[in-house]
Amino acid sequence: MHSSDGRPREATGAQYDDPWYEALASGWGESDGTDAAEAVPPPAGDVYLEVQRSAAFREVRSRYRRFVVPAVAVFLSWYVAYIVAATTAPALMARPVVGAVNVALLAGLGQFLSTFVLTWAYARHARLRRDRAALELRWDTQELTRVAKGGAA
Fold it and tell me: Which of 15, 71, 121, 145 has the largest count of CB atoms under 10 Å?
């Protein structure tokens, strides 16, 4: 069921207040040959698309990807190497290192340790390289949205 402005209604009759839905799912900006007045984007959705296309947003996403993609690749490689070694080289994994501690136990504990190190590195990277820029972007977006909805500048 849709409201008069084309947005979906919930079963209770309440409308969604999602600017991403308004901007992206409504298909505005796509030429369908109908009245040009209908192709005007909703103000809030326009703000989000403007922010998404901004250099600041692209920089935040780029910083995120430059950390996450290599980190995930390294961590998954380490994890797969552990599983492959455990299944294909049981003699290597059973080799004692100190007393009852063997290579498999050390590698397994290394999995836990690497998870904590990766979590710490991600939090540090976010704090030093992305948080401030993302927060500034968030405040700018909220200000632009407020202005677009008719609030005071």
Answer: 145
